[in-house]
Amino acid sequence: MASILQKVLQEYGNKDKCKIQDPTKVEAILQKLVNDGPSKLQVITDFDFTLSRFHKDGERCDSCHGILDHSPLMPDSFREKAKALYQKYYYIELDHKMTVEEKIPHMITWYRESHNLLIEAQVSKQKIQEMVISSRALLRDSAVNVLSNLNDHKVPVLIFSAGVGNILEEVLHREKAFFPNVEVISNYMLFNETGECTSFKEPLIHMFNKNETALDSPDYFQHLKHRHNALVLGDSIGDLDMGSGIHNPGALLRVGFLNDKIDERMDSFINNFDVVLVDDQSFDFVNVVSRLVCGQPLKQ
Ligand code: TMP
Ligand code: MG
After folding, report:
1. Which positions are catalytic?
2. pLDDT tens digit sequence for 111-148
């Protein structure tokens, strides 16, 4: 009899893009996910370049920060300073020769400086909406279907993002994807009475503290304490810990989207994520797995 993993790969159809170090382990996880069904499942996903695309038509897409960094509605001085920060720190974020511990102080400095630039630029709520509408922040193909389907099956989805909460919410609204099953934990801008950003909500979430320590609402996992199984979706090694707040974890399938610096980061992704999707700009794999768990026919 064909294994569940074989069935998933066949339906997914992009076997070349899918790397799995330990198929036996993945098969066991899939079997438990399917046997336990949607009532035991929760989904935890990163936003930037996980739920959203990394590129389209040969051009890079925008992250939450990228929307502002590239917008003509922001002052030139802001764009220049933001670009300089990005050029300095993004390479540190991805440097496969540095340990996470070595990177963390640099990442905190990046976030503090970047948030200060946004406060200095007095970015307003209304401008955010305009910038999102005209941006290149795009959700992955079939991501909206997956979110809608999970909502139909009452499977909670946590978007755990080290981007900017107000901005990613606007993207979800624009795509009509902010379903009632979606919760967001992220960095939120706080505004004054005239609608300008004056500070950010604490605690700061950066790409390497996405675990219980970054939750200011530990109730989130408490409410879901009967849901032991999870799909944990990310595009960074820092996303692996996003499920650390789950009570008595059962079957956790960690899926890594490997978008950038593919050759250098392949080993670390394969060693850490259960499934690695190499330069796949769709949510098709997640769609297949979630449909199987929800007991739905695979073809829509
Ligand atoms: P995440 O996708 O893990 O939530 O992380 C957010 C991404 O945002 C991470 O790759 C770093 C990036 N970022 C920027 O592009 N510009 C910035 O100013 C900051 C602070 C982060
Ligand atoms: Mg990301």
Report:
1. 46, 48
2. 999 999 999 999 999 999 999 999 999 999 999 999 99
**C-beta separation of 151 from 144 below 8 A:** no
Q: Does the Cβ of 46 fall within 6 Å of ligand 1? A: yes
Q: Where are the domains of the chain?
A: 4-54+138-293, 57-133
Contacts of 257 (CB under 8 A, 6+ apart): 49, 50, 54, 233, 234, 235, 277, 280
Is the confidence at residue 2, as pLDDT, over 90? no
Q: Given this model, what pLDDT does residue 1 score?
A: 55
Q: 158 with 221: CB under 8 angstroms?
A: no
As beta bridge partners, residue 199 has 190
Exposure of 71 in the CB half-sphere (CA atoms within 13 A): 24
Distance from Cα 297 to the centre of ligand 1, integer Å: 37
Ligand 2 centroid to 57 CA: how many Å?
A: 20
SS3 184: strand
Q: Is 187 in the pocket of ligand 1 (CB under 6 A)?
A: no
More confident site: 300 or 110: 110
Superfamily in which the 4-54+138-293 domain is placed by CATH:
HAD superfamily/HAD-like (3.40.50.1000)
The residue whose C-alpha atom lies closest to atom 3 belonging to ligand 1 is: 207
Q: Is CATH 1.10.150.340 the classification given to domain 57-133?
A: yes
